[in-house]
Amino acid sequence: MAKSKAEKSSSTARREFVLSETTPFAIKEAYKTARTNLVFSLASSDAKIVVVSSCAPSEGKSTNCLNLAIAMAETGASVLLIDSDLRKPVQHTMLLLENKTGLSTLLAGISDDFSEIVNKDVYPKLDVLTSGSIPPNPAELIQSARMDKLLENVGKHYDYIFIDTPPVNVVTDALLYSGRVSGIVFIVRENHTTHVEINEAMKKASMTNAKILGFLKVGCSAGEKMGTGYKYKYKYKYNYYKYKDYSTTDHSDARSS
Question: What domains lie within the chain, and their CATH numbers?
């Protein structure tokens, strides 16, 4: 099916924020800081598998999942990125990859040959498993024994694995990985993600005993114009946020800070 103009425009916009040689120095350094914190967080884990999600849509979780994977691969570690958003996948559009086969192909048992389906060296040291065709039963596939086997196998061959998942306040897919991965990184966007949304996501994570590795805050304005006249539009922070329950008060308009 041909993409609409809106979909093509959205894909182009996302690619503009993917780490590259032209990415401003400050943003590259911020991702390196996030990477360092993540490495320490995963130090005690055997299979270093990270789920990346968000509280709500349009917070940049797919772009930042990709950027974290790229940043980790730049250390020389072998990295696999899995697009497990089997409802609205976008990794293949950002990376200009075919998506006729992918994760859903393996989980549905259509093929067991991971090596033939994975996209190798999309970036140096970074392999990508796209979503494949959108299935009618994504949650059931994620919970399946085939997914357990896949995670076990890739955990033996890659140093780090990043899994892109849908927002937790929309569907439960990300939380279905609880107990099977090292933990979850939440993407939150300044002036977009509310405290109530964060509170709801953390409650859901707590109910499934999901380990929260941290929050990556994006979309932060970063000061005035530099001497060159260039203003950095985004700054990235990786922080641990202490849980605070906002459910008993009205914070519907509160924003993350």
Answer: 25-223+232-239 (3.40.50.300)
Which structure tokens are listed for 145? 């024994």
Place of tokens 């093509």: 8
Angle at 211 between CA 245 and CA 112, to 5 degrees: 135
- Given a cut of 60, is residue 224 above it in pLDDT? no
CA distance 4 to 120: 28
Residues 6+ apart with CB under 8 A from 195: 244, 246, 251, 254, 255, 256
Question: Which tokens in the block code for residue 96?
Answer: 């200009």
The pTM score is: 0.84
* Average pLDDT for 230-250: 41
**Beta-bridge mates of residue 123:** 126
The span from the CA of 155 to the CA of 1, in Å, is 34
**d(Cα 117, Cα 100) in Å, to the nearest integer?**
9
- Looking at residue 171, its amino acid is V
Report the DSSP beta bridge partners of residue 163.
51, 82
Give the pLDDT confidence of 115-167 residue by residue, as tens digits. Answer: 999 999 999 999 999 999 999 999 999 999 999 999 999 999 999 999 999 99
Q: Shortest CA distance to 139 belongs to which of 104, 191, 109, 90?
A: 104
φ and ψ of 15, to 5 deg: -65, -25
Rounded average pLDDT over 184-207: 94
Name which of 8-12, 70-74, 91-95, 241-245 the model is least confident about.
Answer: 241-245
d(CA 102, CA 116): 10
DSSP 215: E
